């Protein structure tokens, strides 16, 4: 949720806008990620000198400021900072309320307005500040293309609208092994915010076509997460003996079905591995609360009479997988993390 930014963010954005050495003669590409790309950005900052263009990547910590003049990529930080726009927003809110009073008859309009004041209108100030802050950074850094790796969060759409207002081309990059989202943001029309769509294969490309994206705006490319920026380790331990398991990505509406499906998945995998004489060394999730939602209390889960270690952490996958020969999990998660 977009709340007004902190004071230190204003100082940071000022430094990024005025202290970086921007080469306006060189093509620049800004990438706004939705997670899973920390290792790639670290690689870009320390080892990569891109040919023909310059990366603009997210600011990630104080070390970036200390090394700013020695890095090839430029840095950015979007935040809900800027001038006070209460006066402008008051006019917009009044107009919205008037429209609701004139057009809404399904529910009590006064109740609806009170709900929107509490859960919708209160975030307009942060959203407008985020939009204006993004525009200022686009003017300062002048990217030729902005790539967004998500479209289901408001800050991505706001930043995409800001880029288009500055005349900058935008592109959508799927978040994960396959793309999903809203056709209106991609197809021509009043809600379109993406000029191009990157596909990770024929399935993605076909999905974009069904969403109304023209063939000339679709580009099939590789998955950034699988670029060869990490050392590749050849598995010399044959056959496989140790497996790390990731939970399935269930999207069912019923919580009971979801919980039952995940338990059954773990039981089936454990039984299969036991029959193959392969050890299940642990179950790994991104966050501890995923176990809590399943009603699991403790650091182990008893499956088929064995206590399986439960691991968690958004950035702890390398440590969790260190002793594994193979990863089992859903395609969208296992491939990205493994």
List strands and helices in order, with pairings:
Blueprint: H1 7-18, E1 28-32, H2 38-47, E2 54-58, H3 62-66, E3 74-76, H4 86-103, H5 109-119, H6 124-141, E4 145-148, H7 154-165, E5 169-172, H8 183-186, E6 196-199, H9 202-210, E7 218-220, E8 242-245, H10 255-275, E9 279-285, H11 289-293, E10 300-303, E11 306-312, H12 317-320, E12 326-328, H13 331-337
Parallel strand pairs: 1-2, 1-4, 2-3, 4-5, 5-6, 6-7, 8-9, 8-12, 9-11
Antiparallel strand pairs: 10-11
Helix pairs in contact: 1-6, 6-7
Count of runs of 4 or more consecutive helical residues: 13
Quote the beta fraction.
15-25%
Largest sheet: 7 strands, parallel
Summarize the helix and strand pattern as letters.
Answer: HEHEHEHHHEHEHEHEEHEHEEHEH
Q: Measured on Cα atoms, how large is the radius of gyration?
A: 24 Å
Structural class: alpha/beta
Instruction: Classify the helix fraction into a percent range.
Output: 40-55%
Q: What is the first-to-last residue Cα distance? A: 31 Å
């Amino acid at each position: 949720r977009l709340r007004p930014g902190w004071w230190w963010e204003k100082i940071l954005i000022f430094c990024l806008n005025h202290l970086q050495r921007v080469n306006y003669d060189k093509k620049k590409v800004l990438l706004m990620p939705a997670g899973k790309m920390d290792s790639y950005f670290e690689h870009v900052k320390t080892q990569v000198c891109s040919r023909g263009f310059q990366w603009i990547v997210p600011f990630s910590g104080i070390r970036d400021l200390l090394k700013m003049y020695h890095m090839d990529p430029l840095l950015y930080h979007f935040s809900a900072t800027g001038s006070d726009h209460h006066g402008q927003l008051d006019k917009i809110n009044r107009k919205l309320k008037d429209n609701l009073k004139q057009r809404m008859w399904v529910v009590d309009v006064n109740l609806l307005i009170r709900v929107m004041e509490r859960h919708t209108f209160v975030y307009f100030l942060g959203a407008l500040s985020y939009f204006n802050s993004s525009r200022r950074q686009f003017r300062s850094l002048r990217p030729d293309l902005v790539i967004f790796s998500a479209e289901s969060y408001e800050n991505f759409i706001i930043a995409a609208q800001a880029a288009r207002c500055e005349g900058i081309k935008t592109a959508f990059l799927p978040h994960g092994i396959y793309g999903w989202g809203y056709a209106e943001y991609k197809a021509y029309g009043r809600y379109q915010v993406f000029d191009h769509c990157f596909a990770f294969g024929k399935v993605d490309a076909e999905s974009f076509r069904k969403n109304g994206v023209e063939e000339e705006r679709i580009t099939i490319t590789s998955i950034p997460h699988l670029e060869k920026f990490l050392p590749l380790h050849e598995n010399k331990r044959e056959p496989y003996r140790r497996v790390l398991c990731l939970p399935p990505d269930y999207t069912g509406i019923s919580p009971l079905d979801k919980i039952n499906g995940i338990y059954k998945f773990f039981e089936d995998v454990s039984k299969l591995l036991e029959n193959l004489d392969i050890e299940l060394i642990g179950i790994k999730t991104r966050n501890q609360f995923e176990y809590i939602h399943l009603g699991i209390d403790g650091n182990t889960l008893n499956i088929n009479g064995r206590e399986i270690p439960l691991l968690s952490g958004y950035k702890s996958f390398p440590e969790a997988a260190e002793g594994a020969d193979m990863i089992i999990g859903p395609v969208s998660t296992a491939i990205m993390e493994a």
